[in-house]
């Protein structure tokens, strides 16, 4: 049996009734957290441009856009996939380095709405979608991540898996769907140099491409049977080394969605461990920016590859600048969505701290990655004091968890433009999703005033 | 200036009036040849499935489908991009190993129709699109080709370039469009093992993805400025080695579209040099299948990577089997579209020849590749005669050219289901395309009876 065939069997075999209670509860939190990011992102320029594109092309009114209106499931996956990634507050799985929500949920939700599937069906599809892409991401981590944006590449499989589950494809069809998801997998990190909008295109397209793969498989369209392990398949073409056992270890026994992490800070996850430590140090030592002589941050390799940028030129780029985020956290004591603004980008106090932040590779931290996304920080004050802190996990990781209340609070913050009634309705709908008869009701809150 | 910026300047600067007469004439032949393949492919199952998908999703009636009806430009690029690749008779550029028509023309034609652009605009856009993707394909050849389907990956840039030209994007916008074309580039060869339908998905998606990149750039959506040469860009991520000079050498001076080759045999281009030799040998020596003791074919590495298959199980796979194609040519004296059927796939005479065909790497042939797609053949007859033949170029290459009449004859063969009036109208329209005021008229023949 090929790896795709094993994943296909898992997808077919997984029923809502088999999901442990904590998996169901956790999946709902993932969907709520997704919605926070999608609503907050819906007004951003890059998302508005994708929305314009979808509205320019048109499509049957099958699914709801978080930007407003209804369109085809493909376009809805595209727009909602862009919207939920732009504020950089969406969830992340550290073993696979994947933000699964922004790819899996838009595709699953669009198809569930279109087909009038139940809340239980949606939960099952999302749990399955996360599982598939987490496993694939783990199999190619960390080497794949140097060039490729795992969320986009591996996420495409997750979208296909979730949609395949909702379409009730059989095992053979799912093998084709996964094959054609993998052969569409794309998304290079090169955009990060420019802080370009491509990151939202990646998640948008991953959601849409996986969905297209499964819709095609439903019609009999065939794909490669060994897209993962084949000689010219995904593993060999797109990673230096890979571990096939990650695909099947515990498959159908442990649902990996519960390994997912949630983000509290509005920056790239790789900045979070250091930002957590800075916030803690500021609080414990009542640090003021003027107290600082030097801040040394030791991180793993990806921190350096992705976030070593001492001079971000856009708000977006600032979220990917370790030096900026650390300086911001030292000034403000937090790094939430309202803290990243055009004003704060050029704030002289923050800018004056940036040259004092030094980032280097820490070999112990790096060795523990990607299982642990740690950081070591040493702060040297003007009066010669040295404050040393370290962490193995950023806040929001399963080992350092947030609560459902934390996530509802985050939803309230990110959806602040909505009315109280809408916010309550959304929270209520998602947190009792297993009781929702038709996923079309998911968006009912949007029609309230 | 980045490579993308240089390409962008070339795209902006190229005007119809600057195109040499032979480039205009040749471009029209490329479009006619594209239409042959698109019409012949439009009824094939994989294309019908993509057509069903497009019709399921819907879209504004902006552009015409070769399968019938009108839909959004994105869907039209998708369906027409699938249709024109499936019969394996579309054009090929050997330096870049790209079938440009099936990606560039569907995108350009859809946008030209939508925007009522002139035939001259369409010709210019197609010439520019070919040029861009040929250069990128040459830069990464041959190493990229081991894992990646150049037509899909590099073709995405060609689609974006052609559409950018039609949308009259400025240089900055085109850099973004190329960046987001490259970060969507995908298409792995793994499907070939199964003879799966992914190959049509590749061209369909490349056409659509490039188009989306340019439509987004028009709205201000940004992309990586150095998608080609950047540290985490297309070249480094997706090829073992690359040659940047291929992007700029002669850019704007020599239009590379005239290096394009046309296919007469209905199989993978890599089988053509050997098939040409077999047909010649059969004719010159009046060979019968029963005369054959052994056929030895020496080819370049890609012949072995892509077409070494002594036991094809589908008609489609047979087109990618060197052993099958050589045996078919020996039996029939040709290998046109009507020669690849379910019946011929299992023909005992052809099947009995297959084990007599031996394929090995020929180092001289391999060294000359990809500039020359050559072959050496030695036929050993039952009576001990040895017939040796060799070629450096398959028929249809610029060095071994076909005529406009050959391509009109090919159109007549592939569009045989159409009425004589429709065929004449299509040929007339395309061969005088520079006089067509609105590209919407391109499809007028479809409405005739």
From TrEMBL, chains A, B:
Entry superkingdom: Bacteria
Residue ranges occupied by any MmgE/PrpD N-terminal domain in the UniProt entry: 6-241
SUPFAM superfamilies reported in the protein's UniProt record: 2-methylcitrate dehydratase PrpD
Residue ranges of domain MmgE/PrpD C-terminal in the record: 265-424
Pfam family of the protein (one): MmgE_PrpD_C
InterPro entries found in the cross-reference section: MmgE/PrpD_sf (IPR036148), MmgE/PrpD_sf_1 (IPR042183), MmgE/PrpD_sf_2 (IPR042188), MmgE_PrpD (IPR005656), MmgE_PrpD_C (IPR045337), MmgE_PrpD_N (IPR045336)
GO MF terms, alphabetically ordered: lyase activity
Family statement drawn from the similarity comment of this UniProt entry: Belongs to the PrpD family.
Protein name: 2-methylcitrate dehydratase
């Amino acid at each position: 049996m090929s790896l795709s065939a094993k994943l296909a069997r898992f997808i077919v075999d997984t029923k809502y009734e088999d999901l442990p209670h904590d998996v169901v509860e956790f999946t709902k939190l993932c969907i709520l957290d997704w919605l926070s990011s999608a609503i907050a992102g819906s007004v951003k320029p890059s998302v508005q441009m994708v929305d314009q594109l979808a509205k320019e092309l048109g499509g049957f009114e099958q699914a709801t856009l978080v930007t407003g209106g209804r369109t085809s499931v493909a376009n809805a996956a595209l727009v909602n996939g862009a919207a939920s990634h732009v504020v950089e507050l969406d969830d992340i799985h550290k073993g696979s380095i994947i933000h699964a929500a922004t790819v899996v949920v838009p595709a699953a939700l669009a198809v569930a709405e279109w087909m009038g599937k139940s809340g239980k069906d949606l939960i099952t599809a999302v749990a399955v979608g996360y599982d598939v892409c987490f496993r694939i991401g783990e199999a190619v981590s960390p080497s794949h991540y140097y060039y490729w944006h795992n969320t986009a590449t591996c996420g495409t499989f997750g979208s296909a898996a979730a949609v395949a589950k909702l379409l009730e494809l059989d095992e053979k069809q799912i093998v084709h769907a996964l094959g054609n998801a993998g052969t569409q997998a794309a998304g290079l990190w090169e955009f990060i140099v420019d802080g370009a909008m491509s990151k939202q295109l990646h998640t948008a397209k991953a959601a849409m491409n996986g969905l297209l793969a499964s819709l095609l498989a439903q019609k009999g369209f065939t794909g490669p049977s060994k897209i993962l392990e084949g000689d010219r398949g995904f593993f060999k073409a797109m990673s230096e080394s890979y571990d096939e056992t990650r695909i099947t270890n515990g498959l159908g026994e442990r649902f990996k969605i519960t390994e997912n992490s949630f983000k509290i800070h509005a920056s790239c996850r790789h900045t979070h461990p250091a930002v957590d430590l800075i916030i803690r140090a500021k609080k414990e030592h009542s640090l003021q920016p003027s107290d600082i002589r030097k801040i040394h941050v030791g991180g793993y390799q990806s921190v350096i590859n992705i976030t070593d940028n001492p001079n971000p030129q856009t708000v977006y780029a600032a979220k990917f600048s370790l030096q900026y985020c650390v300086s911001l956290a030292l000034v403000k004591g937090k790094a939430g969505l309202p803290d990243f603004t055009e004003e704060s980008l050029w704030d002289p106090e923050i800018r004056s701290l940036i040259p004092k932040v030094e980032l280097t590779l820490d070999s112990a931290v790096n060795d523990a990655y990607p299982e642990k996304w740690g950081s070591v920080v040493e702060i040297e004050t003007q009066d010669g004091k040295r404050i040393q802190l370290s962490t193995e996990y950023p806040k929001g990781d399963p080992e350092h968890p947030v609560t459902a209340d934390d996530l509802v609070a985050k939803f309230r913050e990110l959806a602040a433009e909505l009315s109280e009634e809408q916010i309550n309705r959304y929270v209520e709908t998602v947190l009792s999703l297993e009781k929702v008869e038709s996923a079309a009701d998911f968006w009912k809150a949007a029609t309230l005033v």
